[in-house]
């Protein structure tokens, strides 16, 4: 099994001992989700698979935060935010907008003459470079801005 999965399991045990209810529930849900992913895959998960599943969970929490914020449910926004913060501890450091823009500019220069119609091509190469270090929506926004400027 993946080292990251083992770390999450150890952190769950620590949280249980410390009686940290929010961390316990978040990590239990995450481990359950990872076990379901392992079953769906039909084999053990590596660290990249685990990270991908955590990214999916984090995205779900971000969407929930937006929905609860629109519904003026601050209690649920706070709960989802605390769970998201716990999940983010297991994700690689996120790139800032300037770092993403630099990668986008390099990719556009590498591809040569590109326009807005080539957005999918540029997105594919940029996402392959940034992997889990940037949100796809943020990357798409930057790519779109750069392609419309050219």
CATH architecture classification name of the largest domain: Orthogonal Bundle
What fraction strand? under 5%
Number of domain modules:
2
- Biggest sheet overview: none
**Low-pLDDT stretches:** none
Structural category is mainly alpha
Q: Identify the CATH class of the largest domain.
A: Mainly Alpha
CATH H-level superfamily of the largest domain: Uncharacterised protein YqeY/AIM41, N-terminal domain
Q: What name is given to the CATH topology of the largest domain?
A: Hypothetical Protein Yqey, Chain: A, domain1
- Overall geometry comes to globular
Averaged pLDDT: 88
- Write the H/E string, N to C: HHHHHHH
Pfam family, one: YqeY
InterPro entries: Asn/Gln_tRNA_amidoTrase-B-like, GatB_Yqey_C_2, YqeY/Aim41, YqeY/Aim41_N
Protein name: GatB/YqeY domain-containing protein
GO molecular function: carbon-nitrogen ligase activity, with glutamine as amido-N-donor
Chart the SSEs and their pairings.
Elements: H1 3-18, H2 21-41, H3 47-70, H4 74-88, H5 97-111, H6 119-130, H7 136-149
Helix pairs in contact: 1-2, 2-3, 2-4, 3-4, 5-6, 5-7, 6-7
InterPro entries: Asn/Gln_tRNA_amidoTrase-B-like, GatB_Yqey_C_2, YqeY/Aim41, YqeY/Aim41_N
GO molecular function: carbon-nitrogen ligase activity, with glutamine as amido-N-donor
Organism: Candidatus Curtissbacteria bacterium GW2011_GWA2_41_24
Structural write-up:
One of its GO terms (molecular function) is carbon-nitrogen ligase activity, with glutamine as amido-N-donor. This is GatB/YqeY domain-containing protein. The chain is mainly alpha-helical. The chain has two domains: 3-88, Uncharacterised protein YqeY/AIM41, N-terminal domain (Hypothetical Protein Yqey, Chain: A, domain1); 97-149, Arc Repressor Mutant, subunit A (Orthogonal Bundle). The chain contains seven helices and no strands. It has helices at residues 3-18, 21-41, 47-70, 74-88, 97-111, 119-130, 136-149. Helix 2 (21-41) packs across helix 4 (74-88) and helix 5 crosses helix 7.
């Amino acid at each position: 099994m993946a080292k990251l999965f083992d770390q999450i399991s150890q952190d769950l045990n620590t949280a249980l001992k410390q009686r940290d209810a929010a961390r316990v529930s978040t990590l239990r849900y995450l481990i359950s989700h990872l076990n379901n992913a392992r079953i769906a895959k039909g084999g053990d998960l590596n660290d990249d698979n685990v990270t991908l599943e955590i990214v999916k969970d984090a995205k779900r929490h971000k969407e929930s935060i937006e929905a609860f914020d629109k519904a003026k449910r601050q209690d649920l926004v706070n709960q989802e935010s605390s769970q998201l913060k716990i999940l983010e501890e297991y994700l690689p450091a996120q790139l800032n907008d300037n770092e993403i823009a630099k990668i986008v500019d390099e990719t556009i220069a590498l591809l040569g003459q590109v326009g807005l119609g080539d957005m999918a091509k540029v997105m594919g190469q940029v996402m392959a470079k940034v992997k889990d270090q940037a949100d796809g929506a943020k990357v798409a926004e930057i790519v779109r801005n750069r392609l419309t400027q050219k």
